[in-house]
Amino acid sequence: RENYTYPQNHLRNLARQNCLTTYTMTLDVDIIPSKDILPGIRKFLEKEQCAKCVYVLATYEIDEKANFPHSKGELKRLVRKDLAQPFHANIFKQNQFATNFSRYEKVQDDSKIHISHEVTNYEFFYEPFYISLNSGEHLMKPVEIILIVLSLL
Question: What is the pTM assigned to this prediction?
Fold first, then answer.
């Protein structure tokens, strides 16, 4: 179809519809997940049974001078040193603002992947990166889903 205003949304939906897994992770092409994160995510998802939950991934931009963080503690140190910031914080703050990064960065038991907090202030321009069931539940109206921020290592 021609004249899609945002063809990437169409391509994401097409990819999801043809995915053979139970869950899908929706990211932009320039997002690099933490190394070796998949086993922890699998273990977390095996225990969670929520058909309406969408697990938001708190996403940060890392300065090119910094080493890629291997833990949430390392990420928080980079934030304190102004070597990391929430994704699009300077370009389009509303894009990720509802994730509530200050809540995400609070001290928690980060020995394993867990729920950090629920997104309570959904905003119109909010475009989080997320993991969800591949059933299409997350395509419902925002008031019918539960947005939960995962605390990743």
Answer: 0.81
* DSSP secondary structure string for all residues of 67-122: PPPSSHHHHHHHHHTTSEEETTTTT-GGGTGGG-HHHHTS----SS-EEEEE--S-
How many whole angstroms separate alpha carbon 69 and alpha carbon 84? 10
Q: Which helix (H) or strand (E) holds 13?
A: helix 7-17
Q: pLDDT tens digit string along 40-74? A: 899 999 988 788 888 999 999 999 999 998 888 89
Give the whole-angstrom CA distance, residue 47 versus residue 8: 31
With 0-12 / 13-18 / 19 or more C-beta atoms within 10 angstroms meaning exposed / middle / buried, residue 116 is: buried
